[in-house]
Structure formats: C-alpha cells, structure tokens
UniProtKB/TrEMBL annotation:
Species annotation: Streptomyces swartbergensis
UniProt-listed InterPro entries: CBS_dom_sf (IPR046342)
Protein name per UniProt: CBS domain-containing protein
Length: 62
C-alpha cells in the first residue's frame, strides 16, 4: 500500500486561483494543497505546498 492509496491529495497548477485551491482542499477535507507542474507525458513535478492557514491569510488580505 502506498500513500496515494490511502487518501487523495488535492493538486493545483501554479497558475490556479487561490479560491480554486481552497475549493479543492475543501472537497478532499485536506489541510494541504500540492502545487504541481503537470509534466509533458511524465509525472507531475511538485513545486510546493499550500497550507489552509496560509491560504486563508492570503485570501483575507485581498
């Protein structure tokens, strides 16, 4: 068994709006959202992680 077998992790593209990331995180009830660059025919490349706290902080500032 591997981690991806246990729970889906929300993934977003680097240009994904913050509200869409929040929606993805909400649907999966995850406190984290992965920001990944979709590889051209290869695996996604992880660029970073967004936490719920950081996302909320950024959304409340705008």
């Amino acid at each position: 068994m591997r981690a991806h077998d246990l729970a889906p992790s929300p993934k977003a593209a680097p240009d994904c709006p913050a509200l869409e990331i929040a929606e993805l995180m909400g649907h999966t009830r995850s406190p984290l959202g992965a920001v990944a660059d979709r590889g051209a025919g290869g695996p996604d490349r992880l660029l970073g992680v967004v936490t719920a706290a950081h996302l909320l902080h950024q959304l409340l500032q705008t």
